[in-house]
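Q: what sequence does this backbone want?
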């Protein structure tokens, strides 16, 4: 299996080379030359644990890894750091199944991929005789940062630099990052939003002069964002696992279609579900849920992607994104893997702030449905599910639940539906508790942790207990145009 750049089909890489590079040299994203078909039956998968399922899916994409290498990466990733034996439990509430992706070390779905990425990266470096120290350069809208820091902290041969919007994450998300220990970790708040952080990181990746300077100093960049194919492939696993477990537990018949709802920011999580569907998994509708930063909803409704609009700070900050990087992989696919057409559209986005796809391309999006939830709708669904089921969801999952209600009302589709539950409510205590009862509105996030435990009956996660009294070790803040200087300064230490 080889990977090509979405902007230049002549740039090819093996899986390990694509993982090491993160981003293609021309600024494109690596995509597999074809999406492989699952070669094991759902019946067989239903008898497997998470680690075994991961191997069956990932071996089809990461073909230059030996069985021993890949199984070692999987075993090191999916171990006791998860607080449930199942790794990914499924909880039924109202008329949907919630795929709980937040039981890892940092209580967000990013743990599912970022627990394994460091192991894949180190194996890739050995495989390609890389002697440079690998510098993980990452922008985060809240969750990727901490999950990447936790994954790479103390990993020999790596350093990790995380940029986050200083006023654009929850207090708990910020504290998780700024208390991160590890000599090889560096966290920087920027005076700007996530899109600016992400653009700054991408510019550093495509700066050949910077790359040459870094190489001369013994460094090379790689990414922990979902632009890295090593992030995307592990995310496919949990959709396959979910379907197989639904079959095993009798929630769905083997071969019956399952819809998937994903709260969507950078488009990686829903793209993984799209890849799973194209591997042969019986997924029906891919329901793309946005918050009030509804650039993706407008795209699916009109065929025009337009990022020039007000950037809103919401109670679901990990989705406060106007440039959804992974959408480029889907655009490339609906363009018939036409790198020139895709490059033309991405250049228009950079130059004009928008692009418009053809009617033929829109026709290939028929498997998707897009909608969005307002702040009021998001809060209302948290309250409703708690009052009806005693089940508490976070704000991002609530966006997905609210959009699913709209989808059902519009279509009447009664297919079994899995909602990707992407974070623990403990990451957004004030927003979640205020949705349940306004009396909590003005209380600080950490003060509400014990109240949430009492309401939910779910023990305070270790990830929260650890940061309550942890020392702040990262205090750096910079302007957007200072990001490159900050990186150079950190590497000269």
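A:
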């Amino acid at each position: 299996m080889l990977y090509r750049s979405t902007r230049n089909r002549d740039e090819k890489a093996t899986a390990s080379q694509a993982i090491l590079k993160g981003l293609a040299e021309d600024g494109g994203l690596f995509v597999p030359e074809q999406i492989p078909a699952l070669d094991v039956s759902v019946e067989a998968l239903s008898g497997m644990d998470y680690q075994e399922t991961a191997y069956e899916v990932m071996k089809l994409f990461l073909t230059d890894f030996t069985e021993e290498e890949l199984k070692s990466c999987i075993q090191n990733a999916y171990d006791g750091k998860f607080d449930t034996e199942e790794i990914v439990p499924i909880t039924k509430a109202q008329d949907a199944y919630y795929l709980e992706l937040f039981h890892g070390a940092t209580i967000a779905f990013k743990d599912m991929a970022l627990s394994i990425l460091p192991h894949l990266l180190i194996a890739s470096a050995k495989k390609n005789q890389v002697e440079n120290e690998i510098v993980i350069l990452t922008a985060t809208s809240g969750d990727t940062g901490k999950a990447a820091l936790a994954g790479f902290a103390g990993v020999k041969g790596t350093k990790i630099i995380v940029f986050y919007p200083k006023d654009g994450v929850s207090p708990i998300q910020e504290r998780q990052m700024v208390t991160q220990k590890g000599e090889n970790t560096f966290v920087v708040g920027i005076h700007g939003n996530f899109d600016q952080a992400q653009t700054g990181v991408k510019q550093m990746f495509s700066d050949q002069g910077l790359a040459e300077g870094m190489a001369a100093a013994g460094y090379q960049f790689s990414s922990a964002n979902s632009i890295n194919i090593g992030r995307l492939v592990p995310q496919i696993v949990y959709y396959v696992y979910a379907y197989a477990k639904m079959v095993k537990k009798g929630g769905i018949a083997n071969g019956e279609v399952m819809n998937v709802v994903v709260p969507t920011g950078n488009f990686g999580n829903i793209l993984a579900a799209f890849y799973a569907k194209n591997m042969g998994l019986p997924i029906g509708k891919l329901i793309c849920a946005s918050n009030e930063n509804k650039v993706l909803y407008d795209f699916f409704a009109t065929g025009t992607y337009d990022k020039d609009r007000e950037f809103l700070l919401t109670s679901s900050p990990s989705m406060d994104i106007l440039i959804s990087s992974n959408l480029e992989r889907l655009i490339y696919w609906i363009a018939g893997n036409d790198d020139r057409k895709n490059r033309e559209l991405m250049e228009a986005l950079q130059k004009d702030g928008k692009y418009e796809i053809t009617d033929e391309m829109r026709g290939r999006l028929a498997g998707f449905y897009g909608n969005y939830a307002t702040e009021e709708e998001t809060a209302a669904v948290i309250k409703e599910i708690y009052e009806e089921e005693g089940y508490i969801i976070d704000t991002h999952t609530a966006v997905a639940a609210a959009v699913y209600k709209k989808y059902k009302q519009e279509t009447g589709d009664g297919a079994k539906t899995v909602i990707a539950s992407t974070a623990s409510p403990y990451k957004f205590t004030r927003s979640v508790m205020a949705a349940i009862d306004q009396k909590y509105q003005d209380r600080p996030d950490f003060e509400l942790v014990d109240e949430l435990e009492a309401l939910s009956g779910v023990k305070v996660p270790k990830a929260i207990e650890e940061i309550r009294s942890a020392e702040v070790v990262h205090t750096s803040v910079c302007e957007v145009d200072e990001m490159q200087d900050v990186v150079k300064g950190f590497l000269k230490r």
